[in-house]
Amino acid sequence: MKIGIFGTGVVGSTIGSALTRAGHEVRMGSRTRGNDKAVAWVGAAGANASEGTFADAAAFGEIVFNCTRGDAALAVAAQAGAENLAGKVLVDVSNPLDFSKGFPPTLTVLNDDSLGEQLQRALPGTHVVKALNTLTAALMVEPSRLSGPHDLLICGNDAGAKATVTSLLRESFGWKIVRDLGDITNARGTEAWLLLWTRLYGHLGTPDFNLHLETSGGAA
Amino acid sequence: MKIGIFGTGVVGSTIGSALTRAGHEVRMGSRTRGNDKAVAWVGAAGANASEGTFADAAAFGEIVFNCTRGDAALAVAAQAGAENLAGKVLVDVSNPLDFSKGFPPTLTVLNDDSLGEQLQRALPGTHVVKALNTLTAALMVEPSRLSGPHDLLICGNDAGAKATVTSLLRESFGWKIVRDLGDITNARGTEAWLLLWTRLYGHLGTPDFNLHLETSGGAA
Asked: Can you tell me the distance from the alpha carbon of B135 to that of B119, in angstroms, rounded to the nearest whole number?
């Protein structure tokens, strides 16, 4: 599959590399073609990797992953161009974190709105699926790092888009428990999780953790 | 141990009954002595149970559980009287939920403040411990309803108060994994969990669930 990635940071390069290893063709997008970090990533990720502008990555991908910082996500979507994303799936991995007052961060949007919804409103012709924003990058692409069962929470308005994303996450990354919470407004829940996640990170001393939902039916 | 309960709803009566079964003397407080629901609870809970005003319950308890609705918590603390709670532990089980726009609710305070902190500021001479607000009432007092491991998250400024509450929860309710996240500002995290909890409730179709933190060290 041809996949676009927005963002050259740890999340974008981790997801991009894992997708190339799984046999996908991946184009990493940034503000300008030839970005140092994107070029270095292409060199490391090999023949399935390429780089370009956000618009290049959007036009290239059948699916696109938004791995930018939360405060850049809407501007990046505009730079990528709604026409390049029309009819496609945009997996939004970003969180609206504000570190301006230090750690733990606050959220710039929450409670009765979410960044996932803002992206969906900005790109009405695109199927936004919120996913992977609930855990650290290494675990996004290799859930087997944790020995016990643990859960991925996704949401979005389009059932077909969520099925496509779920299949990709299962087949390319090995996810076993993928819970579809419903429409994109559920991003209000999975983004708010970051207010607890950051504190659990402080408590545990490692980002290498995830939640598992224990139910009265026993382990899922 | 002598324990006070603020609130006559499901949470207050569930916690109160479980504490009487564990051998504690429990006084349920409400706005007026002789409240119908409090009297009915005393009749059901037996010899270790009594009822009175919020001030009566506060004066009676060595530990007090706040089980009111979030939007009543500060007014109840004022009615109970700071002098009746001075030097004591107040376990805050409430959440600042706003159902005025339906389900799922929003929170009336979050992100850079929390109800737990508001209570602590209102009662500077009391040790507020945020606990049990992250799960449904039946599970608060009987965590063994779920077969697998799952975690209770608590926080508060006073280490001794947290140790007292942790011992009580282990011995009287059977909690095994109690995670102390740190000072009371961590209530911003455990209260924000409700924005996800309410959506997981919708997804699972039952409130009988809790989170377990899966870490790279395996099950806790």
From this structure: 20
- Token duo for residue A2: 């041809």
A200 shares contact with chain B (CB less than 8 Å): yes
What DSSP designation does B16 have?
Answer: H
Query: Is the CB of A202 inside 8 Å of chain B's CB atoms?
Result: yes
Helices (H) and strands (E) in chain A, counts: 9, 11
State pLDDT tens for residues A99-156.
999 999 999 999 999 999 999 999 999 999 999 999 999 999 999 999 999 999 999 9
Q: Which amino acid makes up residue B150? A: H
Q: Which of B146, B179, B196 sits opposite A189 (nearest CB)?
A: B196
In chain B the domains, ranked by start, together with CATH numbers, are 2-204 (3.40.50.720)
- The phi-psi region of residue B94 (left if phi > 0; otherwise alpha if psi is between -120 and 50; otherwise beta) is beta
Residues B110 and B192: beta-carbon distance below 8 Å: yes
Going A64 to A113 to A187 to A127, the CA torsion angle's sign is negative
Cβ atoms of A177 and A148 within 8 Å: the answer is: no
Strand partners, B51: B28
ipTM of the complex: 0.97
Q: What angle do CA A121, A125, A126 make, to 5 degrees?
A: 80
CB contact at 8 A, B156 and B108? no
Beta partners for B214?
A: A210
